[in-house]
Amino acid sequence: MSAPFDLNDDSVVVIVGSGAGGGTLGTELALKGIKVVILEAGQRHNMEDFVNNEWESFSQLAWTDMRTTSGSWRVHKNFPNLPAWIVKAVGGSSVHWAGASLRLQEHEFKTASTYGGLDGANLLDWPITLKELEPWYAKAEDRMGVTRTNGIPGLPGNNNFKVFEAGAKNIGYKEVSTGRMAINSEPRADRGSCQQIGFCFQGCKSGAKWSTLIAEIPRGEETGNLEVRPQSMVQKIEHDASGKATGVVYVDKDGKTQRQKARIVAVAGNSIESPRLLLNSASSLFPDGLANSSGQVGRNYMRHMTGSVYAIFEKPVHMYRGTTMAGIVRDEAGFDTKRGFVGGYEMETLSIGVPFMAAFLDPGGWGRSFASAMDGYVNMAGLWIVGEDMPQETNRVTLNTDVKDQYGLPVANVHFDDHPNDVAMRNHAYAQGAAMYDSVGATRSLPTPPYPSTHNLGTNRMSEKARDGVVNKHGQTHDIPNLFIADGSQFTTGGAENPTLTIVALALRQADFIAGEMTRKTI
Amino acid sequence: MATLIDRRGPSRRAVLAGIGAAGALMVSGAAVLNPREAWGLEVTALKPETMRTLIVMARDVYPHDRVPDRFYAIAMKPYETDAAKDPALKALVEDGVVTLNTLARANYGVPYADVGWEDQRVALLRQIEDSAFFEKVRGGLVVGLYNQEEIWPIFGYEGASADKGGYIDRGFDDIAWL
Question: Glucose-methanol-choline oxidoreductase C-terminal domain: which residues (chain A) (predicted)?
Fold first, then answer.
């Protein structure tokens, strides 16, 4: 069972964060016989404790520590202190993700070469290719039990999918299905099949959905090599005079400051907290923050080009019944500049309940127009658009030294402006989504603005050359060999696909690399 | 306003309310009453007339004709509770209502809650929609109104499902009109 390691044990790998990246990396290292301590800022819940109520669940799971925002994105106006809707709990945002598990496309690993120069876009090719990542994608899909891979059948389509599918086919789309989902369509890996509960975002109460909380961390703990310490908020990564990471300082569940020594430190706090931690760890040796010789830490913040289309029909849909996101159209995901933009987008079914619909349909909206849309709730179908947004150096996580968190540390400020390419793509997607629903008889379409970010990417980007980014192709920081990044902040560019499968594939690959380097004693 | 209503008495007010915007809402002593829905809301921190105005305003902000007044009243009740311990909030609400009523009188000769048409009242709200008072009331309603489980059936939303075994045997794919 879970092995408690000593604070002074400097042979352990310390991982900051227990989500898709950190939870997977920690478990995989433990399975390889390597001692791991995961420090998780949030609490540990059991799946039975999850709540089928949107606001109650938000209070239970969401990261609501103070953050600030700036820029022209609408989130700054409507949700100034909630740039992202992500989780603070063991399992991280893998507790709340919807399960869509897609590989990036080949060209999305080389956008600088494929898209060419684009004003304001800090495009860069990844230092790895799809081909190099394919074996790790395959391993991740097997491990997560992704439907439509490994002989696993697709999930059945719910009402929201049936409307979506009919509309997609009506307007000529070919690649429409209930998608590749890390949600069991039949019992697998000691977990049952989907009960169509409809609260995927609130933590799956049946255990059908993969998360590090239920599917990875317990396996790691069984080896005796993994200890997860919940309610442990890391404040700073420390280093020695040679610039090698030596451990981390954190505040434990009792509010006491502790110092955990480490052989290796891996940061997996998601794309807002990870750069914040590097920046807050600035020292006399690294005055601009750790691993920041390129100046790229915190920059190129991406959140995917998103938006939703809800449509109201004459008759009931009950879109909220069943799996939240088991439905996808992939026809627009490719690269085709005839549409007036580079990159592509996916359309995926999405449903939120009445409480969140009120908050997110048209934030700040009121009056008959808004209320009559809400009156149409039971007759609504909905889809989410998720596309590649352009990395921009000015879209950026910085320290806001004017605002301190509960520990007295500067909070993260998230600055974001849409790139014109993002706007063109969103408008195209709004029109296509509305056309799908119109073709099935929608009486009203509601182009809904992006929610607080769920896909946070790019703030510690991967690059071949140290001057262009923060980490190399293994997520190892260019500046500090025993400091790694294990979350979506590594993404060089965002692709059009939901990022979790890629985060998991990279974590599995990174575990292999770290184990090899430890054996070779290079770190 | 409270003294005016007290002088006229509840029955006179009920008659007026019946033809005015406030529907069945009336003020009696220290309470807002809705005889048709058989409920009363006692208010002490705020003026009763202020609470009546807030309830009318709440419906104008998110007008759902199938949602009874009591749910708007429940959504507004925290302002009464919070105003008792928060003088700044109390001032924000009372002053906001005074502003609204001043606008209403200037345009229609009656207080806000007695302006006859929703469109007319909404036109007044548009004039104050950038104010802290309006944003406080509107923002509070998003959760205070729509997170009341009792109103979800009116919208056709069924709420929690895991305790009922999900929808796998309860219509997750029962759409028949496509």
Answer: 391-507
- Cα separations (Å) of B64 from A376, B105, B127, B176? 11, 26, 22, 28
pLDDT of residue A154: 98
* Cβ <8 Å between A198 and B161: yes
Residue A153 is given by DSSP the state P
Backbone angles phi, psi at A384, to 5 degrees: -115, 140
Angle among Cα A334, A336, A338 to the nearest 5 degrees reads 150
User: How many folded domains does chain B comprise?
Assistant: 1
Hey, where are the domains in chain A? 13-519
Query: pTM of the predicted model, to two decimals?
Result: 0.96
Answer for the pair A121, A390: CB distance below 8 angstroms, yes or no.
Answer: yes
Q: What pLDDT does residue A342 have?
A: 98
* B137 within some domain: yes
Give the nearest partner residue to B147 out of A55, A195, A196, using CB atoms: A55
Q: CA distances (Å), B124 to each of A309, A350, B103, B121, in order?
A: 31, 36, 7, 5
Task: Report pLDDT digits (tens) over A45-79.
Answer: 999 999 999 999 999 999 999 999 999 999 999 99
DSSP 8-state symbol, A213: I
For A344, the token pair is 């592509």
- Chain B: residue whose CA lies nearest to A50: B162
What is the count of residue pairs from A and B with beta carbons less than 8 Å apart?
Answer: 126
Q: Is residue A225 predicted with pLDDT exceeding 60?
A: yes
> For A450, left (φ over 0), alpha (ψ -120 to 50), or beta?
beta
Q: How close, in Å, is residue A398 to chain B by CA atoms?
A: 29
Residue B168 lies in a domain: no
CATH architecture of A13-519: 3-Layer(bba) Sandwich (3.50)
Instruction: Look at residue B102 and tell me if it is in a domain.
Output: yes
Torsion (CA) A253, A257, A262, A266 in degrees, nearest 10: 60
CA gap B70, A374 in Å, rounded: 19
Q: Give the position of tokens 């899909």.
A: A141
Which residues span the domain enclosing B95?
Answer: 44-152
Residue A442 in contact with partner chain B when CB distance is under 8 A: no
Per-residue pLDDT tens digits for B48-80: 999 999 999 999 999 999 999 999 999 999 999
* In-domain check, residue B157: no
Tell whether A53 is within 8 A of chain B (Cβ): yes
Residue A109 confidence (pLDDT) above 80: yes
Express the helix, strand and coil content of chain A in percent, nearest 5 each. 30, 20, 50
Cβ–Cβ of B158/A196 closer than 8 Å? Answer: no
**Contact (CB<8Å) B172/A55:** no
* Chain A residues within an 8 Å CB radius of B147: 54-55, 355, 358
Percent of chain A whose pLDDT exceeds 90: 99
Residue from A264, A242, A217, A253 nearest A9 by CA: A264
CB B21 within 8 A of CB B114: yes
Mean pLDDT value of segment A157-179? 98
Is the pLDDT score of B2 beyond 50?
A: no
User: Does ipTM come in above 0.90?
Assistant: yes
Q: What is the pLDDT of residue B8?
A: 33
Q: What confidence score (pLDDT) does residue A255 get?
A: 97
For the packed helices B48-61 and B87-108, what is the interaxial angle rounded to 10 degrees? 70
pLDDT at residue A2, rounded to an integer: 53
Mean pLDDT of A189-200: 97
